[in-house]
# Entry
Amino acid sequence: MTPAPHRSHTDDLLSFIAASPSPYHVVASAAQRLEKAGFRELRGTDDWTGATGGLFVSRAGALIAWYVPEDAPAHTPFRIVGTHTDSPNLRIKPAPDTGTSGWRQIGVEIYGGVPLNTWLDRDLGISGRLALRGPDGVPRNRLVQIDEPLLRVPQLAIHLDRSVNEGVALDRQRHIAPIWALGDPREGELLRRVAAAAGEDPADVLGWDLMLHDIQPPGYLGVDREFVVASRLDNQVSVHAGVTALVDAATGATQPGFIPVLAAFDHEEVGSGSETGAQSPLLERILSRSVSARGGSDEDWSRALAGAFCVSADMAHAVHPNYSERHDPDHRPLPNGGPTVKVNVNQRYATDSTGIAMFTAAAERTGAPWQPFVSNNAMPCGTSIGPLTAARLGVTTVDVGVPGLSMHSARELCGVRDPGYLAAILTTIMVGD
# Structure
């Protein structure tokens, strides 16, 4: 069986995933863990002067957290772990109540690169947030999570589509609306159901960001339970590892020699172009403000960046046993072989030799294995927040990730050891041992 330290980490990871069906829940779960470790939340309207210790800022589906050791000079360099909170899924339309042929259905949009066949014939719940009327005229937000089998996207029976196993897909836009009842559409029905689950009056709901999630709980797979299987491993494995590393760096026996930072952005799966995405100035503004709040000058800010290092952590591809020709013949990462270091000379990943050296040196000090990853030349390469962060802040960046299968599927797979390996390496980088 798997050694206890790895199972302990993944048991905690599975709890994190189960509590986090949407980016907003990811932020809430991370914030809860940070607060338990003594971190405190700062708001944009607060006075940050002299703030030290564990601190974080949350905004919708994004969270920036950092730890300032006592007496740390304003020019102390940053050690940044960049991740993202969102995952490809189906998101509910503004006017959701629809239906046809005697079925009541829900209108959804496809968010990110979704392998739609993995969402067919699965029991789906609803999660996200409601924007509610506030007593002072300012909207308030309320998270909602309905872990009940409310909806389903039914697959067409093979008798009615004999070509289904030949790769002929149904029209994406016309046939993705999930069913949830019989009868004609009832305007406002979904809103009433979701508001009731949140304990709110539907009349107070002014807007929402709602999505569907597979309600099957995360778990283990394999003859020795050597695999983790769950929704949203991409990229909650990395968010959880980043939170774990930041807490360990802040509460360990050795004070960090740097300012450890966790930057968890939203909307990476659709390009990161939002106020909470990696293309926004969110991270830059918060880190700059943290320097000036400790009495730092523009020169201190420049020095802090000059000595900074960023690890962009996102899921990676393990070699697929049934499609090994799709992978580079000399780079074939496997689960439980350690995190991968992702390289792409066309800068779809920001990794260079300096970044590789810094990450692998930390892996050696930690005693954790690692694996190189590069895409097959004939296959388009994915990307991450690494190049965006490197370009915006001008800091040395390395792209890494836990290798897995079924990326972007409704249910993904990775090795049970790798999430713990990643967290341990990130801790070493943040502390600077």
The mean pLDDT is 93. The chain has nine helices and 20 strands. The two ends are 31 Å apart (CA to CA).
